[in-house]
Amino acid sequence: MRFHLSSEQVAIQDAVRGTLAGCWGMERLHGFADGEADHDPESWQALMALGVGGLALPEAEGGAGLGLLEAALVCEVAGEAAAPGPLIGQIIAAIALSKTGNADARALLPAVASGDRPVALALDGDLVSCARGAQLFLADDGQGGLRLVEAGEGVDIAPLRSTDRSRPVSRVRFSAARSHALFAADDPWAAKLRDAALVLVAADSLGGAQHCTDLSVDYAKTREQFGQPIGRFQGLKHQLAHMALDVEPARALVWYAAYAWDAGLPDAPRAAAMAKAHLCEVFTRTTRAAIAAHGGIGYTWEYGLNYWFRRSVHNRAWLGSPASHRARAAGLAGW
Q1: What is the pLDDT, as a whole number, of residue 93?
Q2: Sign of the alpha-carbon torsion through 277, 127, 138, 211
Q3: Mapped to the 3 state alphabet, what secondary structure does the chain carry?
Q4: Could you tell me if 309 and 315 are in contact, meaning their C-beta atoms sit under 8 angstroms apart?
Q5: pTM here?
Q6: How far apart are CA 112 and CA 97, in angstroms?
Q7: How distant, in Å, are the alpha carbons of 139, 254, 278, 315 from that of 125?
Q8: Which domains does the chain have, with CATH numbers?
Q9: Buried b (16+ CB within 10 A) or exposed e, 96-127
């Protein structure tokens, strides 16, 4: 692949970034975090109006005919903005419905691709982000396969005081809920879709890490101490340089993992595991360094860096720890 973005891919990120800038700023994020909801209809509808729900669908299915790489670019921008909503679940569910042979499930594809029926990702035990605003759940069938569960009777949702305040978590239990089988455990798509979810979580982490780095650099240029910008102090220069050197090389890891998934390369599962493991650790390191670089203001609720730190902690644990994915990557490499 070409390790830089095409003009069309840059335009996708610019469109998503501009949309979120218009409907999801720090004031809205503060209000959302202080409230009780786990879904923000306005920002969700604005994103879905761009067609990101069906971005990775073939044009024959009403999508944009693009791939996981473009979906990862969208999730990267969502991570920059600490955007709410089950975006990753929506994208993965749309791909799943386009590939399943279950006709009843496929009938739900238009509503999923358009975002009219939000889909939460329920592949990590009983802890689910944005569950109360979801109408569908992409879930494990208990035997390693995948199913789509409809919200309502048989779905018990208990809100939790979660770490991530941008995508609140609930404990969700399914009992005789209406569901649609998508893929059995031995179907290659069951594993492939899980890998796609890992790549999108890594992309979200990349966006968050880049945002915290940029915020820290901008702050160092404007905050003055002893009559000069603090960015002139050697110690802080080194800290900011280490942050940039941690984040930028990781970008290729995410892009390659998404490209390998799209191209069906043999090392795609290992690339997905490595991207998820490494980017989630980069995200947590970068948010901690950003808070330190800001000094006292970085610890305040009003400044807002805590949202990205909290999101990084959630991403690190979501769908498996870095250690578990590194062990998987080693196994896939035959180590």
Answers
A1: 97
A2: negative
A3: CCCCCCHHHHHHHHHHHHHHHHHCCHHHHHHHHHCCCCCCHHHHHHHHHCCHHHCCCCHHHCCCCCCHHHHHHHHHHHHHHCCCCCHHHHHHHHHHHHHCCCHHHHCCHHHHHHCCCCEEEECCCCEEECCCCCCEEEEECCCCCEEEEECCCCEEEEECCCCCCCCCEEEEEECCCCEEEEECCCCHHHHHHHHHHHHHHHHHHHHHHHHHHHHHHHHHHHCEECCEEHHHCHHHHHHHHHHHHHHHHHHHHHHHHHHHHHHCCCCHHHHHHHHHHHHHHHHHHHHHHHHHHHHHHHHCCCCCHHHHHHHHHHHHHCCCCHHHHHHHHHHHCCC
A4: no
A5: 0.96
A6: 9
A7: 9, 25, 22, 15
A8: 188-332 (1.20.140.10)
A9: bbbbbebeebbebbebbbbbebbbbbbbbeeb
What distance in Å separates the CA atoms of residue 257 and residue 272, rounded to the nearest whole number?
5
Q: Residue 29 corresponds to which tokens in the numbers above?
A: 């994020």
- pLDDT by residue for the chain (335 residues), tens only, comes to 456 889 999 999 999 999 999 999 999 999 999 999 999 999 999 999 999 999 999 888 878 889 999 999 999 999 999 999 999 999 999 999 999 999 999 999 999 999 999 999 999 889 999 999 999 999 999 899 999 999 999 999 999 999 999 999 999 999 989 999 999 999 999 999 999 999 999 999 999 999 999 999 988 888 767 777 665 676 678 888 999 999 999 999 999 999 999 999 999 999 999 999 999 999 999 999 999 999 889 999 999 999 999 999 999 999 999 999 999 999 999 99
How many Å apart are CA 257 and CA 276, to the nearest integer? 9
296 vs 300: CA distance, rounded Å: 7
Q: Which whole-number Å values give the CA distances from 166 to 44, 170, 219, in the listed order?
A: 13, 13, 23
